[in-house]
């Protein structure tokens, strides 16, 4: 997929992560390995019940160089901070501000990756790095298409390291994925792209 990699040299203003089944371990390993001076905000949708998302965020925060928290309505996105969508709420972004809502589920889930990705594409246009990880179903595929249509950059997890190769497969099949990677290579690739290396 080297042909599509020409557009890497662009300013990235936000990193988006979307995952479902098998995602907590992948996200934990990734986020705790990222440098504390990434200098962009990171917004995460992990399909998870409401009572678990704050515990998940706190556990990652204890072991991360970045600040990690459960997202709150109307808070401004700050650099070097990871915002995890609370279970039971869709998380969208408008004017660099997080919005939480309880509009109907999408693909049977709330939060939905598509809601985050599509709103971020309107807000940040092409200056997005989006990643789709292991999970059941096809949440994220529509969002990936919108991000790519605005000129953003998309990575997805490979089949070999995915617990369930549903969401990454659906994203890949859109034709909008720039690179397919095993879970352990995301950290280096995210840092490289965000820093324009």
Gap between N and C termini, in Å? 18 Å
**Residues in helix, %:** 25-40%
Q: Sheet bearing the most strands, described?
A: 7 strands, parallel
Mean pLDDT: 95
Topology as H/E string?
EHEHEEEEHEHEHEH
In short:
With 197 residues, this protein is of the alpha/beta class. It has helices spanning 23-33, 50-62, 113-124, 141-149, 167-172, 186-194; strands spanning 14-19, 42-46, 67-70, 81-84, 90-94, 97-101, 128-132, 153-157, 179-181. A seven-stranded parallel beta sheet has the order 3-4-2-1-7-8-9, sandwiched between helices.
Please tell me about this protein's structure.
The strands form 2 sheets. Strands 3-4-2-1-7-8-9 form a 7-stranded parallel sheet, sandwiched between helices. It has a two-stranded antiparallel ribbon with strand order 5-6. The protein has helices at residues 23-33, 50-62, 113-124, 141-149, 167-172, 186-194; strands spanning 14-19, 42-46, 67-70, 81-84, 90-94, 97-101, 128-132, 153-157, 179-181. It is globular and about 35 Å long. The protein is built from 6 helices and 9 strands, in the order βαβαββββαβαβαβα. It is of the alpha/beta class. Helix 3 runs parallel beside helix 4.
Question: Any descriptors?
Answer:
alpha/beta, globular, two-stranded antiparallel sheet, 197 residues, disordered N terminus, 7-stranded parallel sheet
Helix and strand topology:
Blueprint: E1 14-19, H1 23-33, E2 42-46, H2 50-62, E3 67-70, E4 81-84, E5 90-94, E6 97-101, H3 113-124, E7 128-132, H4 141-149, E8 153-157, H5 167-172, E9 179-181, H6 186-194
């Amino acid at each position: 997929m080297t042909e599509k990699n020409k557009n890497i040299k662009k300013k990235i203003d936000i990193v988006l992560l979307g995952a479902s089944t098998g995602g907590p371990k992948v996200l934990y390993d990734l986020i705790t390995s990222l440098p504390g001076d990434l200098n962009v905000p990171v917004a995460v949708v992990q399909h998870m019940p409401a009572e678990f998302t704050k515990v998940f965020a706190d556990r990652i925060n204890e072991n991360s160089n970045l600040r990690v928290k459960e997202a709150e309505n109307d808070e401004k996105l700050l650099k070097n901070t990871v915002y995890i969508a609370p279970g039971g709420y869709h998380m969208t972004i408008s004017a660099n501000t997080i919005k939480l809502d309880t509009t109907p589920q999408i693909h049977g889930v709330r939060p939905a990756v598509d809601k985050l990705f599509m709103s971020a594409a309107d807000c940040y246009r092409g200056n997005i790095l989006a990643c789709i990880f292991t999970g059941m179903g096809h949440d994220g595929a529509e969002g990936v298409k919108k991000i790519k249509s605005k000129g953003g950059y998309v990575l997805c997890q490979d089949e070999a390291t995915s617990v369930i190769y549903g969401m990454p497969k659906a994203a890949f099949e859109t034709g909008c994925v720039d690179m397919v990677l095993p879970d352990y290579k995301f950290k280096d690739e995210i840092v490289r792209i965000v820093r324009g290396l």
